[in-house]
């Protein structure tokens, strides 16, 4: 196996491309109703609950999630206005629907999601303090040496793989199409890959020797382009990013499979965030309890 990818790389151009990519990544995750706008994580059952800062009374009914909206309250979903009592119907595992609302001139939303067989509600508000406080995520300086050639060793059929989650009592199951094998400084490594965003693309969840020191302890992820006809692709660890659980207690992110805990230090990609939201909605530095 070879790792020769970088002999002809224009380092200045490589850095500019990385900066453009990371700037876009930061912009997307700091969207006004994105993950940084989540104000709480609520486990839904048969007993009705209300959500601070969001309209309606919510419960699980025969037709899935049901909301009862009082006079003057409304939600919007796919361009349609919801009033009164509304059932959202069946939602698939790892699926979600996110109706929106307005509170005066403040935009909001309620994410309805199924995670590990559980129904969760996560209200979002554009005036969440974390959005205003967020100043970006520190990173390692991008370096082409962290681009490694990798070959997919596919399984005969995708293997359902159970992993833990960032919250207690929850597990996730993802289909793994195979294992990505690569070498680094003469050592051979293998990472279980999950399906990525595009057709044939892959996603790897991992930790390494920097985890809990300079990078977030629980996990990082890196997206990987679909392998070619011979199974070859590239893992660019410069594009390793934090999952939402690095920033908030209100995330249910998956943890890496057991074999994806690398003994080497991947000194590339995103580092530990400078602040996070804990379950009492305070902003704290990582590792600080309240």
TrEMBL record:
This is DUF1684 domain-containing protein. It holds the Pfam family DUF1684. InterPro entries: DUF1684. It comes from the Bacteria.
């Amino acid at each position: 196996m070879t790792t020769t990818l970088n002999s002809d790389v224009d380092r200045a151009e490589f850095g500019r491309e990385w900066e453009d990519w990371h700037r876009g990544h930061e912009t997307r995750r700091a969207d006004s109703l994105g993950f940084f706008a989540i104000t709480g994580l609520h486990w839904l059952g048969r007993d009705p609950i209300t959500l601070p800062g969001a309209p309606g009374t919510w419960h699980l009914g025969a037709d899935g999630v049901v909301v009862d909206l009082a006079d003057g309250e409304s939600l919007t979903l796919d361009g349609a206005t919801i009033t009164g009592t509304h059932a959202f119907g069946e939602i698939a595992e790892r699926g979600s629907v996110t109706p929106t609302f307005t509170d005066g001139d403040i935009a909001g939303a309620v994410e309805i999601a199924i995670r590990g067989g559980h129904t969760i509600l996560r209200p979002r508000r554009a005036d969440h303090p974390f959005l205003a406080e967020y100043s970006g995520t520190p990173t390692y300086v991008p370096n082409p040496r962290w681009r490694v050639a990798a070959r997919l060793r596919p399984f005969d059929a995708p293997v359902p793989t159970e992993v833990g989650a960032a919250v207690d009592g929850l597990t996730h199951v993802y289909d793994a199409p195979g294992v990505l094998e690569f070498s680094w400084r003469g050592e051979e490594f293998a990472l279980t890959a999950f399906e990525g965003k595009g057709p044939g693309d892959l996603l790897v969840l991992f930790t390494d020797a920097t985890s809990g020191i300079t990078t977030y302890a629980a996990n990082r992820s890196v997206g990987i382009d679909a392998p070619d006809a011979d199974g070859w692709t590239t893992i660019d660890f410069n594009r390793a990013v934090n999952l939402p659980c690095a920033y908030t207690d209100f995330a249910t992110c998956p943890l890496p499979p057991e074999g994806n805990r690398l003994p080497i230090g991947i000194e590339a990609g995103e580092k530990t965030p400078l602040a996070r939201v804990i379950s009492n909605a305070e902003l704290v530095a990582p590792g600080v309890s309240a």
